[in-house]
Q: What sequence folds into this?
């Protein structure tokens, strides 16, 4: 259901992740900017999987537990992105806007999980009243 706030958070998270992959410089060398789309294959894969899971979670509105699980896996992919950046590319390159902008989809997914949990509590309270 698109009118639920968590669906909007999932959608915006996917849009921001795809935007980072294609349009935002992630790291810089001494002379040029490096993008995920052309230079970093595995890092790009983490963000694309995160975006795909976010889009898929929108259509799982009937199963809130699955939505929360997909949100957690999507956040895990973003965490893997950060770990790979910090472990493998910290010494070679300087960080640019794309690395810091990846916090936005992570926070949006966290907010979506919060609102899914809030919906679950509301439904349990309504069932208890009946």
A:
């Amino acid at each position: 259901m698109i009118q639920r706030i968590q669906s909007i958070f999932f959608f915006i998270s996917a849009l921001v992740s795809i935007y980072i992959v294609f349009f935002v410089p992630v790291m810089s060398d001494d002379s040029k900017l490096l993008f995920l789309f052309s230079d970093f294959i595995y890092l790009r894969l983490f963000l694309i999987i995160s975006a795909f899971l976010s889009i898929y979670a929108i259509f799982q509105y009937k199963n809130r537990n699955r939505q929360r699980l997909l949100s957690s896996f999507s956040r895990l992919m973003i965490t893997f992105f950060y770990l790979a950046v910090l472990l493998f590319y910290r010494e070679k390159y300087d960080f640019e806007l794309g690395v810091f902008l990846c916090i936005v989809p992570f926070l949006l997914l966290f907010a979506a999980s919060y609102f899914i949990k809030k919906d679950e509590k509301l439904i349990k309270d309504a069932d208890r009243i009946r």
In short: The helical segments are 5-23, 36-39, 41-58, 64-88, 97-101, 103-129. Residues 103-129 form the longest helix (27 residues). The chain has a mean pLDDT of 91. The two ends are 24 Å apart (CA to CA).
